[in-house]
Amino acid sequence: xxISHQHRYLFIEVPHTATTAIASELRACYAGERILDKHAKxxxxxxxxxADERKYFVFAGVRNPxxxxxxxxxxxxxxxxxxxxDLAGRGKWVTPLHQRQFRFVTEVGDFAAYLRRFYxxxxxxxxxxxxxxxxxxxxxxxxxxxxxxxxxxLGLTPVRPLPTSNQSARPRQFADLYTAETARLAAHTFGxxxxxxGYEFPQSWGAVEPSRYSQAAFRLAESAVNWTVEKxxxxxxxxxxxxxxxxxxxxx
Length: 252
Description:
Helix content: 40-55%
Structural class: alpha/beta
Order of helices and strands: EEHEHEHHHEHHHH
Strand content: 5-15%
Largest sheet: 5 strands, mixed
Distance between the termini: 16 Å
Low-confidence stretches: 232-238, 247-252
Radius of gyration: 18 Å
């Protein structure tokens, strides 16, 4: 999480949305400084922020979850920059779930099996908790132009184009990894989130749709989380968010 008191912004680092590049650029060029953990969530900021800091311009990123899962899989398969074995160094943010997923991919090495094992339940990206209070959500698919536009909204002139960093080795066309079977599973798991953020299924999948159950479960959890952030006292938000997370499979 990056904050600038000079320019009055807060950047929430949602994994797999070019956060490494943006955070580095904010710190290097736009008076940003790190606060809390790298992937701290908005309610964590609210618990310790002053009344004035809660008025800062808040922005984060979003990415097609079909693409995120492929990126995850290939990072596990290549042990990206040694993150999943060097737990005292690069892997200091690795969670027990990350370790289980890394072991599974190392032992099985099959994307369809990985999807069935870890993504059978309805998907929600918990790093976007409280997004209705954000001023802007940048799309990974247009991250450079969205970042430049965000700087403009902050009254800042871009110093340079956004550099790229922390890229993983993986196929460019993520849809090629999905079969007819996993496409149906993906529609159930990711469909409600994709609808909320305006993402579409690949045309090659045909007429796939999320199930009524997955749509209802997603709406219930989303409503609970938003109510938690917007209505509950700050001290009571953690427990309610944890309850909502039990309805859906979390993104670790």
